[in-house]
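Obj: model holo form, ligand = (R)-mevalonate.
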Amino acid sequence: MTWAFGKAILLGEHAVVYGYPALAGAIDCRLRAHFIAEPGDGALRLRVPAWNLDVKRADEHVVGTALDAIVRAVGAALNIREPHLSESLSGRIDIDTELPAAAGLGSSAALSVALSRVLSGALAPARLPLDNDQIAAIANCGERRFHDNPSGVDVALATRGGLGVFVRGQGLEPLSAPPLALAVGLSGQERRTADLVGRVAQARSQAPTRTDAQLAILGAAARSGRAALERGDLAELGRLMARAHATLAELGLSTSVLDRLVAEAERAGALGAKLTGAGGGGAVIALARDKDHAQAICDTWHRSGHPGFACSLGARP
Ligand code: MEV
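Output (holo structure tokens):
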């Protein structure tokens, strides 16, 4: 049995794909993977009841191909080849999670990390487990099947937890700030991260000066947000989040439902609220004063028909 975290990006989504920093943290909403050895046809099966998912390795389904990529990468890291690899993995993996899928909360990265961990444990129960860098490298092989061009921020947080600044190619620099109280509101609009990342790439090719300036604003907000967090200035962090939402909306990444959830959170006294992750649907986050305030913001969303949950950002193993 292994697990991985979901994540929320406070500042810097999309800009992080282009080398700017992102300020982000793990949320205390986990995904657990359980491997059960079963003699059979040798085809590894993966079940995620919460997402209505039941696939086999290498099925013509994005999750099947991601599972296959992770099996191969774990086999390569442990130097276990076919047919021994498939024989040792005859069985099924059951996933148990409260993390919503396709909502910008890092569900595919959490799945990739938990699979990498559970498979390495199943293949080498008597050996030292792979370290976090190896797990993240393997998980990124799966994550690339979900998103064409992931920056790696989701996998880094799913693996390590905590709160930090992520820069593509450099990894996650942990910050020692205390966990933050967040309300997460769900729009109910599922979307593909790859499509939204593609939309920004298209905007860059059509209007490079304007789009690059918007990405630079998002990157600068992540830097300022880090400084605000380090001096405990949550009011400033909230203001930066509100401005980042406006910039993300200018980039065409918000929706009317996300804008409404942000406005409702602000009316409920959130220090700041914005879409999180790729946008185009998915989730919004609202920075709250404490856990009770986060719950009050969620209650406001519930009254207008949108589910949400209070959580802590910066969850650690
Ligand atoms: C997805 O959680 C965040 C994006 O910046 C994409 C990425 O970093 O890979 C939109």
